[in-house]
Design a protein that fits this description.
It is built from twelve helices and 14 strands. It is α/β, with parallel strands linked by helices. The strands form two sheets. A seven-stranded mixed β-sheet has the order 6-5-4-3-2-1-14.
């Protein structure tokens, strides 16, 4: 029975508690077409397009998430390698997106962005698409900000893909433009934006080691989803952003005994549990697994359960989480 529940994505708690969670709270299903159908039929749902990190032997696409509202994909968070293919598998339409959010610009969170830019040519989209990502906080030698990210990729003279520069130039004749926004990360202030009616986006700086990074929250139709992004928990800002959130996606790239760079960059399970408890998150989904963490479900659950007793689940690529 234990293995059956693990395959469904649930670990820990009593049989009855897990059954209640399955029926009433979140409903992940197998990685097939039924997941996309579930997201498209829900009022609000989050689909995990990529549940992995930068490795290419973990069996997962790199980090990416899709928020569905009223059967349409409205917000994409991160665009790691493989996310374009997962986007296609999900049945989403690029023309429906109202915003793209980047937690930061490491390659496993942003590599597929040029794929989406080119794909826009083959859609019926005519409305500009805003792109939000963290400023580089003066650390341009390690990570760039949103505007530099798109400039270095698509500038018509110096870019890697100059033939796509028209999508970033309002004076060029393209059906729409991608508009980059740099979000300040020097303090702990909350950043807010409203890219579409009824869609409220909030972001707050987090510590990904000393690298500039953001956690994001989306509020829509009376529901909320919060994405931690990569962070170590030292800044203690995610607790405020995620307060009372319906669904908290926490990146679980390391196990409790990880040391060195891994622990400097990422949250340990006990940190995830502490933050989830302080935020009073209704549900927690773990994602952004790496080989060092994805085969330690029982131990990771024990670390989280030391603080947090709410609904807990493990993401797979294309898993859909209905928020009802």
């Amino acid at each position: 029975m234990k293995m059956v529940w693990q395959r469904l994505g649930y670990v820990g708690g009593s049989f009855l508690a897990m059954l209640v969670m399955l029926i009433m709270l979140v409903s992940p299903v197998r990685a097939d077409d039924s997941q996309s159908q579930t997201c498209q039929q829900a009022n609000v749902a989050l689909q995990v397009l990529g549940s992995g990190g930068p490795e290419i032997d973990d069996g997962r696409a790199s980090t990416a998430y899709l928020l569905w509202v009223g059967g349409k994909a409205k917000v994409m968070i991160d665009m790691g390698g493989g996310s374009a293919w997962r986007f296609e598998q999900s049945g989403a339409n690029l023309a429906d997106l109202d915003a793209v959010l980047f937690t930061h610009f490491h390659v496993d969170h942003s590599a597929d962005f040029p794929v989406f830019v080119k794909a826009g040519f083959f859609t019926e989209r005519t409305q500009n698409l805003p792109i939000y990502g963290p400023d580089n906080q003066g650390k341009g030698d390690l990570l760039v900000n949103s505007t530099v990210f798109v400039d270095r990729l698509f500038d018509k003279e110096r870019g890697v893909y100059p033939y796509l520069s028209g999508y970033f130039d309002a004076n060029r004749q393209t059906p729409f433009n991608y508009i980059a926004h740099d979000v300040p990360v020097s303090g702990d202030a909350l950043y807010t934006a409203k890219p579409a009616p009824g869609l409220d986006i909030s972001g707050i700086p987090v510590n990904h080691g000393f690298l500039p990074a953001m956690a994001w929250r989306i509020d829509v139709a009376g529901k909320s989803v919060t994405i931690s992004g990569d962070m170590n928990g030292e800044r203690q800002t995610l607790e405020r952003l995620a307060k009372g959130t319906d669904l908290l996606v926490a990146h679980a790239a390391i196990h409790e005994h990880t040391q060195g760079a891994g622990a400097f960059l990422h949250m340990k399970p006990t940190t995830i549990g502490r933050i989830a408890k302080q935020a009073n998150a209704k549900k927690v989904v773990l994602s952004h697994f790496m080989n060092r963490s994805q085969n330690r479900m029982e131990a990771m659950t024990a670390g989280i359960r030391a603080h947090y007793q709410g609904a807990l689940a493990f993401a797979t690529d294309l898993s859909c989480w209905v928020i009802d």
